[in-house]
Design goal:
By secondary structure, the chain is of the alpha+beta class. It has helices at residues 23-33, 97-104, 123-134; strands spanning 9-13, 17-19, 37-42, 50-54, 57-62, 72-80, 108-113, 117-119.
Length: 141
């Protein structure tokens, strides 16, 4: 793919996530910060309810909700072609050396997205997304 780019920006996604990220806003954010890579930062959905305990006494029970205190890689990127210099063939793991290195170089920015985001890693995720579609509650449509 590198041969098709000179010193321009391009979009990259893993393809296993669904979101209503405003791609135009993501691109504008990337261009305005002039960094090598912009990553989408999303809040991960919780898979389990949480308990607060005092010994064996449950003092707080909270059913599944979105985890509000952390951000994860949402899988939607804007990258400059210079990023290819950090790849070492097809066996390179994007989230390891390349992204860690450009983070050290202060060339990675995060575009925070508080809207809808959902991965589709297994059947439970697919079933959930199918349910949203059938109930006409799919925010990405």
């Amino acid at each position: 793919m590198e041969k098709y780019f000179s010193d321009e920006n391009f979009l990259l996604t893993y393809g296993d996530g669904i979101s209503n990220i405003d791609i135009n806003a993501l691109i504008k954010f990337h261009v305005s910060h002039n960094k090598m890579v912009t990553i989408s930062a999303v809040r991960p959905p919780a898979r389990f309810g949480s308990l607060s305990l005092n010994g064996s006494d449950v003092v707080k029970f909270k059913e599944k909700k979105q985890l509000g205190e952390s951000w994860i890689n949402g899988g939607f990127f804007v990258m400059n072609a210079k990023f290819f210099n950090f790849l070492d063939g097809d066996k390179t793991v994007l989230e390891k050396e390349p992204l860690e290195k450009i983070t050290e170089l202060k060339e990675l920015k995060a575009f925070k997205h508080d809207g809808f985001w959902q991965c589709m890693d297994h059947k439970l995720d697919k079933d959930y997304l199918d349910l949203l579609i059938s109930e006409k509650k799919a925010p990405w449509i």
